[in-house]
Amino acid sequence: MNGQVEQMCNIVLCARKALYENEEINFVTSKHVLSIKFVFTSELIGQKSFEADSVWKWFHICKERDLDDIKFMIPTATDDRYILGFSNTSQGLIVCFWKQGKVTCFCPIWEFDSERKGWNIVYEEHLMTSVRKENITFTNQTEEFKKVLLDIGKLATDIGFEGFPNIFHNAYEALCDFSHVEPCHVSAQVPNEFKGIYYAVETADVFGAMGSWNDSPPYYAHQKGLEKEYNELSDKLLKQLRYHMMYVVNESWQKK
Prior knowledge:
Elements: H1 3-21, E1 33-40, E2 50-52, H2 55-64, E3 67-73, E4 93-98, E5 103-113, E6 118-128, H3 142-158, H4 163-176, H5 195-204, H6 217-223, H7 227-251
Parallel strand pairs: 1-6
Antiparallel strand pairs: 1-2, 3-4, 4-5, 5-6
């Protein structure tokens, strides 16, 4: 899974769990992250913007500001799948719903420090005026997800990429039965009923850079006259991956 998307998902999952259990947030930062900072907007509270230099401090401030709910949002389609392996291209958002009725989102900006070999990340808060919490709902649509995995796995075989059918098959199997999947592959913050879907999304997210489904497969699909099928199935797969990641994250740890 794209590292930036994975981080947003895990932040929201951990925050939702902490809200559900009324406890402190339990989030572990990746070893590749040098710093993470959250810049709060002044538009919500009528004072100068201020910052938090950890996920724990960010969540503590959010609770003090009466955070009511939090969700992860990301487009299910893109104009250019080939850029998804690069930083700052996911368009994902951490959306916060406040008890006073306002809605804000935190947008990430990742910068790589070539000397220290790690990432500095800044989440900037922005006011949102056209989002309603009741309109952000998701349902389990894994039967469609399974079909796409089977279809794109067959296409991968047809164009001569034997590694990708195994990836898509493993994701399909996780949707059917999660019991065989090693627990270490799945975030501990994911409730049991969602673990299979989370693993399937994590496994089948093949839209990276070199060596990914975006690299050589489109050329070989074109050579075999299967370019149309490649593009259609790739778009369908991306839609299923992103939709079901939002389903897992946003339907987990529902407040009573």
